[in-house]
Description:
Layout lengths: L3 E6 L3 H12 L3 E6 L2 H9 L8 E5 L1 E2 L2 E2 H11 L4 E6 L4 H9 L4 E4 L5 H28 L9 H13 L5 E4 L6 H10 L8 E5 L5 H9 E2 L11 E2 L1 H4 L4 E5 L6 H13 L1 E2 L8 E2 L3 E6 L3 H6 L5 H7 L2 E4 L9 H14 L4 E2 L1 H9 L5 H15 L4 E2 L6 H6 L2 H4 L4 H22 L8 H26 L4 H8 L3 H7 L5
Parallel strand pairs: 1-2, 1-3, 3-6, 6-7, 8-15, 8-16, 9-12, 12-15, 17-18
Antiparallel strand pairs: 4-5, 10-11, 13-14
Amino acid sequence: MNRKNVLIIDDEVEVTSFFTYFLKAKNCHVTVAHSGKEVELLLADNASAGYQLALIDLKLPDANGLELLTAIKNRFPACEAMVMTGYSTIKSAVTAMQLGARDYLEKPFDDLDSLETAIFSVLEKSTERYDRLAQTARHYGMVYAPASPMVKVLSLAEKLAKKAINILIEGETGTGKELMARFLHGTSTRSSFPFVGINCGAIPETLLESELFGHEKGAFTGAVKARKGFFELAHNGTLFLDEIGEAPLSIQVKLLRVIETGEFMRIGGEQTLKSNIRFISATNRSLEQEVEKNGYRADLLYRLEGVKLSIPPLRERPDDIPFIVQDYLEKKFGGTRRVDAEAMALLTAYHWPGNVRQLLNVMNQTAAIHDCPVLLPEHLPANIVESSPRSLANTNGPLAVHRFVEQEAIRFVESVVDRIGSVDEIHFEQLMERIRRLETEIGRHIILKGLKETDGNRQLLSEKLGISKRTLRYILNEKE
């Protein structure tokens, strides 16, 4: 069973200690916060992989539990939440559920069997729901981190997919608007019918009308036979209008009528045809601004924008980059190639004006030019390395240490695996538990080394390592 990340928020040390021991015994990784301030620091930590569950006390001395619930759901959309409450705050617990909490736990926690059932029921559903959504999104080419803003976007998209409503997708070039459209179609009730896409900005105005409406034989010079347009081809399915903002005003007028009535005629035709279509449109610019400048019809925008989905640019979700890169390498090379820690940090720090499309192009070019199992910073394009913060390119900085440790660890693991006999001699879970203990022991030795270097100044050491004094004490296995 995979380890679950659980966040416990309560100002009572007895409560957090109880849940820490209780959940660690169930193979969970537990993070504790005793105040709203500590929660703020955790939510601001970009290195966090996110949480599957947060247990939140509604009454904290410096924070409102309902506000913390909202902040956690915004930062980690896939995280389920349960609130901890006494009898006096049951009404607040109901409000919390209306804000997105899955359930509430009533203090005191006397019945451990019921407590375990309640918590792990939510955890398992959370994991199943996230895994299912992530797997479906990956099928359509969208990969993201557990705490990515894309979780919220895709969760909404999955709900909207089954609704009989037109959708407008906004996003910069390269963010994956067509992939989102295919996701919407594939998870809708129309998935067994055609998905037809057309780029309104890539086809001349004289041809765009023919592509959409079709034409009869002899309708114009070169029309040597009748031809169905996309309105007919997409019948009962989805018509994806990419870069709809580029559609000329003359086409906008005719498109509006089709959306309103479902009726159209082929060019040169006399028979009215009907088509049952779900319209999904995409644009890389604000159509509202175009309407204000009289460059776009407001009535058409209202018809297309039944609901609007906005895909955030890659620079606003850097945590997704390692997942996208790893997915690319697995699909392309079967997992036989990887990117080292420092090179990945450079990729993550880059601003990616071309978004996911640019990232994949860079990976494709880099992997093709450098045929080696590990891609290093020197293999990346110069513009990515040079535009990153100087600290990332500093060969004597923290990342160089991380890279050294990673390389040494890989060599050690490879040598150990080579010397292991038959897998029949391995009890895998026991082995992994010993390795987890070893991680803690390594952390303890690093802290002991740091205490020597700082003459025992724990505050200074905590600042240098970027951890709290509480975490330092925890690693040293010291009691509160």
